[in-house]
Structures are given as C-alpha cells and as structure tokens.
Amino acid sequence: MASRWLGDSSASLDMEIHTDTTDFFRVEYGDVVVLRDTPYLVRQNAKEERFGVDEDVKYWVKRAIDLHSGDAKIIKLAFHEKFTSRIGDIAFECFRSPRKEARILDLVAGHGNFMQGFAVEDEKGNVVRVLDLIHGRPLSKYIEGLNVGHRTYFTEQFPGILEQFMACIRAIAFLHEHGEKHGDIRRDHIFIDREDHRYRWIDFDFNFRHRENIYAYDLFGLGNILLFLAGKGDVLLHDLRDQQSSLLDVLQEEDLNIVFHNRVANLKKIYSYIPESLNRVCMHFAKGANWYYESATQLHHDLEVFKNEWQT
Amino acid sequence: MNDDAANTGNGEKVFNRNILIAVDESANARRAVAYVGQLLGGLAGFNVMLLHVVPEPEEDFFPSTEEKEKWLAHYSEKVDGMLADYRQLLIEKGFAPDAVSVRSTLRYCPSMAACILSERDETGYSTIVVGRQGLSRSEEFLFGSISSKIVSHARKCTIWVVE
Asked: What residues does the UspA domain cover (chain B) (predicted)?
C-alpha cells in the first residue's frame, strides 16, 4: 500500500509498523503508524519557525499520508512535556496536553475557524491527533509579505483582514463559552486557508496552570495579534530609535504594550489616521490601561463598534 | 445559606462573628492570618475558619493517574502542615482552640475567587479575609487577581484585604 508513495527507494525495505507510539523518536520517515485500523505513512517531522529564524523540529508531529484515502495528514503523537514559559519577566508553568487538544477537536468539528481532525488512542492509550492539512500560510507571514505602505494597507486591506480576525475572536469566545482555552494564541497560530480564505486557529495542545482568570492569557494573545494587524507588524521602540524618529518624543511609558515593553500599543501616535475607536481598543493592551477586557466577547463588541463607525 | 447577615427589627443588618481566612503558602496569606490574630485575638465570640482550596489539576497535567495521586498526597500533607501552623499562630494570639477550624478542599477552579466565594456561601460566614498578592500590572493583566475578583464579586459578606 505504501509503495505508491515510497517509490522503489530502499526506505520501503526498512519500514517499521507502529501501533505503540510512546517513543515518538522511533517513528521515522517511511514508517507506518496504524491507528484504529487506518495506516498512516510517515513522510517527515514537522518544523516550526519562530520569529523568522530558527526552525525547531517537532519530533512528535509527523506529516503523513492516510493510506486508505491518500489524504495528507498531520499526526501529533502524545508528548507530555512540562516547561517554564516566560512572557517578559513573568514565568509560568506550562505543559502539553494531548487530551485538551482532543477535547477541542471534538468541540470544534465542522467549525470554519479551527483546524479540523480527530483524536484516537494507540494501543498503549497514547492520545494521537490526526489533523487535516491546511493548505495555506500563517497570518504572520501574509502580513509580513505585504509590500505596501501602512496607509494604503490600512485603508485597503485592513478592513477585510479585521473582518476575518473578528471571526477568529468569535471562535475563541466559542471555546471560552465551553470552558476551554486555546492556550497559545499567536499570530503564526492562525493559518489562512488557501481554499476558502478562512482564518483557522491551529495548535490547541498548549496548556498551563491558570491563576485567577482562566482566559486572560488568551485575551492577551488576541490583543497582541490585533496590534500586529493594525500596525502592519509590531511597532518596536528600537526600530524608531534606529530611524531616529521624532515620534519617540511623543511616546510615553503608558503608550507601550503592558507586557512587551518594547512594543508600542498606542498606534494612533504612530499613524494619526487610525480612528479613535480602534485605538481605544488597542489601548486596553497598553501599560496605561486602567481596565482590561474580561472576555473575548467584550473585545469583539468594541471592534464591532469601530467597524460600524468606520463604515459610515 | 443559613447564617448570612440578618436584619434586626429596625432594619439594621446583623453580622455573625464568623471569619473565613482564605490562605495559601504565601507570605501575604501569613500576614492575613497574623492580622486577624492581632486584631481579634483574646476577644470572645469570634470563630475563624482557615480555608485552603486545592485547585484540581487539569486531566493530563500529570502523565499518569499514579503521578497525580502521588502529587495529591504530597500536597495534602503540605497543606495540613500549613493549616496547623496558621491555626497555632491564631491560638498564640489569643484565640480559643475550639474557635479556630481548618478546611482544605479539592475543587476544579476556573476561578479561585469564585471557589472561595462558593465556600463562603456554603458556610454563611460574614467576613472573608485575604492577603493582597502584590501582583505587578503585567501579572494582573495576564493572570488576574484573586483578591480583586473577590472584592468585586462578593455578596452578602464583607471583605478584608490585608496589605
């Protein structure tokens, strides 16, 4: 069955068939993973690019082919990793949670703003997720690749992008309404599906022991993406310094991102044509904020207000 | 809810003298206990319950049930010691031993503040005491503040936030 994909290479001779995926390092190119009677041919390990530089190989995530249907799949094997994450100078305990991702896949089946797939246990009870491949690229790459000035971008492209992003915010509100957090909201965790142009959230296995507000970290992620989209990239203090920008004279401490103190949140001071109603939303994520969003619905509501004002 | 503030005949509310101190291992929790001890120790009629809510870890925070059980056993032992220590502190400040009770409970807590308030609702204590965590603005933004949420969501009781 696999020979069609492997050709006459010697890989087919060394092929191993795995029904126990506990040691995911042993699952290699050309091997077959059998999950609930369906064989998946492993093609390669997935890689993740962070901040446009290093590519980390994710050995527990395999690109594969469903040998029954011929469809390309992503197979995420169970990896119980615990680690300390740092956001600015704040450390918190995180872990990968295959069961959380499995629950969410179940919850969002058929939802257009999430990656699709299902979870299945291997013979040792490891929770493996079998995901549909999204043909497209991360939102971050798309924005970074736009070759227009900010004003043109903001008037011509941002309205459509915001519309799609607001659908993503509604999708996060949907998760929260069902007691789930995404856990790792980042600009490269939204993929733009080339087929239907929808924005889809990916990667829900990241988890952490929350403190008081279980959804605050997700809201922080949404805010960062909003600032990135409205600013057509991060507006960084060191870039302004490099440019010897006179805008540095008008920026104050409270205009900076509440957590990432090198990023500007008060975008209106940079781009004066940004409407006040949008900037007000952005300022909820600034050091000077005296009130924070408590739900994705509140954030969505304020963006709706901006959108309606802007359209009239 | 059987022991909440009642009304006297002239409309004035009557509060009971039962005080719930929500604690953990932090220095601010110890300050809250010491504060109650200094303020009310030696006065008759006050009862204190030291409460610790154990936030139940999510289902696969631990790779196996055995590891979860081991963690819980260790945690329980630690909490018992902590509560006994705080109880002793109150007794040393003048509380009668039978006026100080302890309670630890394992709960799934999307919000710790909501869990503490729910415990209060079950006991009907008139006063909750918590220590201020002293979070930075960034931390409060990212994770939320238990004491702030208790203050804004509490009903039918009074909150003391100890600095």
From this structure: 17-162
Do A123 and A144 belong to one domain?
Answer: no
Q: Are A94 and A205 in contact (CB under 8 A)?
A: no
CB under 8 Å to A77, separation ≥6 — which residues? Answer: A21, A24, A27, A60, A61, A62, A126, A128
- Return the residue matching tokens 């709960």: B107
pTM (whole model) above 0.90: no
| The token pair that represents A274 in the structure block | 């940004």
Which residues of B, range 112-141, sit inside 8 Å of A by Cβ?
Answer: 112-113, 136-141
Residue A102 lies in a domain: no
Does a structural domain hold residue A87?
no
CB contact under 8 A, B143 and A97: no
How does strand A55-66 pair with strand A136-138? Answer: unpaired
Closest CA to A269 of A235, A298, A292: A235
Domains identified in chain B, total number: 1
SS3 A289: coil
- Interface probe for A, chosen from B67, B138, B140 (most Cβ of A below 10 Å), is B138
Whole-number Å distance between alpha carbons of A108 and A110: 6
Instruction: Answer yes or no: are the C-beta atoms of A241 and A248 closer than 8 Å.
Output: yes
CB A185 within 8 A of CB A225: yes
ipTM over 0.85: no
**B80 located within any domain:** yes
- In tens, the pLDDT along A240-274 reads 999 999 999 999 999 999 999 999 999 999 999 99
Tell me, yes or no, whether A143 lies in a domain. yes
d(CA B99, CA B90): 10
Same domain, A307 and A163: yes
- Residue A181 forms part of a structural domain: yes
Residues A288 and A159 in one domain: yes
Range of the structural domain that residue B89 is part of: 17-162
* Chain A positions in Cβ-Cβ contact with residue B71 (cut-off 8 Å): none
For chain B, say whether A206 makes contact (Cβ under 8 Å).
no
Whether residues A225 and A241 share a domain: the answer is yes
* Integer Cα distance of A276 and A279 in angstroms: 5
Range of the domain at A7: 3-78+117-132
